[in-house]
Amino acid sequence: MAAYGAFLSGQLPQVIIISDPLTAQVADLFDAAHQTMLQALCRCFLHSDETNQEVRTLVETAVRLMAGVLRPLGSLLTTLPLGPAHPGELAGPAFYMVHPSQFVLPYREAAWKVMVQRLGEMADACARLGREAGLSPVANLEANLQAIAAGLQAHLDGRP
Known about the structure:
The chain is mainly α and 160 residues long.
């Protein structure tokens, strides 16, 4: 609440930069998953020609990202170091948000293709990061992301 009150009074809260390279990559992965989850949720409410089943898939996508990706990544982030400028201090999720105009695409097919591509890139990042010391739990998220992407892709493939 103090940071929010400072923001309202015109004072900006102190920003702490994650300088540990692996922690920063996990934080970037969290932010990518968070943005994709927000994109799926926005698409539920601002959809164009999605069917009822496709809207349900978007809701399921958002929930699966929250429970199967964001929760474990967020928990992992709270165990990782900020970096040498902050010895002994641990990171955490930032829940970074961009303006919806930067990720809400007006056309269904384009929006879904972007989400599938992002999910694939996140799955690849999980496989890569999971090979790093102390980050093996991240590798387990690869299958979650691939399954979520496959669910979206099935709707793309099922449309003419």
